[in-house]
From TrEMBL:
Taxonomic lineage: Eukaryota, Metazoa, Ecdysozoa, Arthropoda, Hexapoda
Protein's recorded name: Uncharacterized protein
Organism: Euphydryas editha
Lineage: superkingdom: Eukaryota
Length: 165
């Protein structure tokens, strides 16, 4: 499954500030194999748009089974950087076995771990994006782990974002 980047504009909500940078990013990434689209909602479709974006326009990225919300500014370069960072991200499921493997590997690798509340959804989009950016820019960090907090210790289910150093 490829990457989709979708600008969603709820009915009667201004999205002019995202129109040009989104279009510029899609043109610059034309040969990347990433699909771009704009969903300008009507009165009929607005309930579906607002279920995804509430009362503001949003850029959503579908990377495999991951749905991620862009939380950066209205800048072509920031949008492209976010998409590139997601392309370099892979997911692993945290299980007891995976947690043990991580413990064994930490002697040779640096890890950043973010404990986020389970089910925080949209509220955690910005911290996730910042942690990914930090891990990508700090050469000693091999992986970034984003794990829901409050789901127990070992064996908790969560998401680990592997970012090659």
């Amino acid at each position: 499954m490829g990457i989709w980047v979708l600008l969603i504009a709820p009915y009667q909500v201004s999205w002019d500030h995202l129109d040009l940078p989104f279009t510029q990013a899609s043109i610059e990434m034309l040969d990347s194999g990433i699909s771009f689209g704009i969903m300008s909602c009507t009165a009929t479709t607005d309930k579906y748009c607002r279920a995804l974006t509430q009362n503001e326009p949003a850029i959503l990225v579908q990377n495999g089974t991951n749905n991620l919300r862009y939380t950066g500014g209205a800048s072509k370069d920031e949008i492209i950087d976010f998409i590139q960072l997601l392309k370099e991200t892979s997911d692993i499921e945290l299980s007891e076995e995976t947690a043990r493997e991580i413990e064994e590997r930490t002697a040779h690798e640096a890890w950043l771990v973010a404990f986020l509340p389970a089910g925080c959804a949209r509220a955690c989009d910005a911290p996730r994006a910042h942690w990914r950016a930090v891990a990508a820019r700090v050469p000693l960090v091999t992986y970034l782990v984003v794990r829901p907090d409050g789901e127990g210790d070992r064996g908790a289910r969560g998401v680990a974002r592997g970012l090659p150093a």
